[in-house]
User: Fold NADP-dependent oxidoreductase domain-containing protein from Molossus molossus.
Amino acid sequence: MDPKHSHSVKLNDGHFMPVLGFGTLASEGVPKSKAAEATKMAIDVGFRHIDAAYIYENEEEVGKAIREKIADGTVKREDIFYTTKLWATFLRPELVRPALERSLKELQLDYVDLFIIHVPVAMKPGEELLPKDANGKVILETVDLRDTWEALEKCKDAGLTKSIGVSNFNHKLLEMILNKPGLKYKPVCNQVECHPYLNQSKLLEFCKSKDIVLVAYSALGSQRDANWVEKDSPALLEEPILNAIAKKHRRSPGQVALRYQVQRGVVVLAKSFTEKRIKENFQVFDFELTPEDMKAIDDLNRNFRYFRLSFGVDHPYYPFSEEY
Assistant:
């Protein structure tokens, strides 16, 4: 394997995705400029996979950071693997390409490396990220995901994205895409919440059997953003078993949680905006967990979700009522 791809996984369309990604979602109240600073730090530390999304509302800053690192010679554009996501208000097929073009314009890049459907639950189109009715309830609509997928395939054919995939899909929704008559490209990945409290072993097995890469978000637990996460959620990094394993390897619990995913063949996203943590999160390739460590971490699973997407619970494509 080309050393350039040594910490990468080959996708089903032939492109390579670095197994460790840098997440750019900022908690509320964090200034947007922080995303740019953190992205530059991450690239300096060695991250080459940058995970972003339209709904994070900071693609302009992240794009600027990437372009500055290209301009100063740290990286070339082809060294960077950049992911953006199609938000729920753009799932109608005719809105897909304009949504991607809008991200590209913010980023000032010619293409992204990966474009994924952010959630399978469509919302009413428009400028509002969370369109709500008079009672404050999110306004949903039903769009056939196969039509949305076809529009993503066209974006790939047009060269606007190298690869296409999905996020927050269960195995039934994946199967719906995979069994679509006239399917041109399979999803390369399914990005889902995944950590020791929700290890997604069944979904992981299913994805591996279809040559779809599982990408883990909230791999370190979650920041408690009140909009999405219950405030009494357990703090993963305080888990005693994780801490005991970390101590044994002279590592942080965060590094152990990331290494766990790498060893089970999951691409893992790590999000931090502090330099010490960003550096720490990148240091997961120079130690190995034992089979006993892996089993002990597997046993922490309790099917606990930080992100339940509860606004979409009545939607026909709500993904989390299935076991996997």
